[in-house]
Design brief:
This protein is an alpha+beta fold. It has a single domain, classed as Gcn5-related N-acetyltransferase (GNAT) (Aminopeptidase), CATH 3.40.630.30. Helices cover 31% and strands 33% of the residues. It is built from five helices and seven strands; from the N terminus they run βαααβββαβαββ. Strands 1-2-3-4-5-7-6 form a seven-stranded mixed beta sheet, with helices on both faces. A hairpin with a 2-residue loop joins β6 and β7. The longest helix is centred in the N-terminal third of the chain and has 16 residues. This is GNAT family N-acetyltransferase. Pfam families: Acetyltransf_3. It comes from Paeniglutamicibacter terrestris. Belongs to the acetyltransferase family. RimJ subfamily.
Length: 177
């Protein structure tokens, strides 16, 4: 797993095309342009600007020369919140092999040690049992249900909300103000 780069746009577009049907129940309805190399290149550049400002990290999971997953640490907020959101998917051909679980555990540790965050949050559709297992294996806990939380697969859908606290101690020092 590593930070995505603009030259990864062809691999990312190919992965989205390859997984279009597989991902459709779990993602927003996408315009046709989304599945092109140019769209993905622009998105990677935009997200790398967020990385420069410390607001997010677009990560790719690779098996050799093939991109097999996408992980986004986004919406990083510093100050008293010290939190970020996590989103991800793994190629349908590679699903169920523990790749997402291993990658999410690595991201949790990176958020704790390297980024000094206090909390990560993630959400899943109510029926996305596989993703819920990934989060629970990585130490996330279920904290509630958000009605009509995201517009997924063409409709507003309820989501389970999860969080993992990265620092249990009560610290008087807040990093990254």
């Amino acid at each position: 797993m590593r930070l995505l780069r603009p030259h990864d746009s062809a691999m990312l577009a190919a992965a989205y095309v390859r997984n279009r049907e597989y991902l459709s129940p779990w993602e927003p309805v996408r315009p046709e342009e989304y599945y092109t190399e140019s769209w993905q290149a622009e998105d990677i550049v935009r997200r790398l600007k967020m990385t420069e400002s410390g607001e997010g990290y677009p990560l790719g999971l690779f098996a050799g020369d093939t991109l097999v997953g996408r992980f986004n640490l986004a919406g990083i907020v510093r100050g008293p919140f010290q939190s970020a959101g996590l989103g991800y998917w793994v190629d349908g051909k590679y699903a169920g092999r523990g790749l997402a679980s291993a990658a999410v555990r690595l991201i949790v540790e990176t958020a704790r040690v390297d980024l000094g965050l206090h909390r990560l949050e993630a959400s899943t559709l109510l029926h996305n049992i596989g993703s819920q297992r990934v989060l629970l294996k990585a130490g996330f806990e279920h904290i509630g249900v958000a009605p009509r939380y995201l517009h997924i697969a063409g409709k507003w859908q309820d989501h389970n909300l999860y969080q993992v606290l990265l620092h249990d101690e009560d610290s008087s020092e807040v990093l990254g103000n």
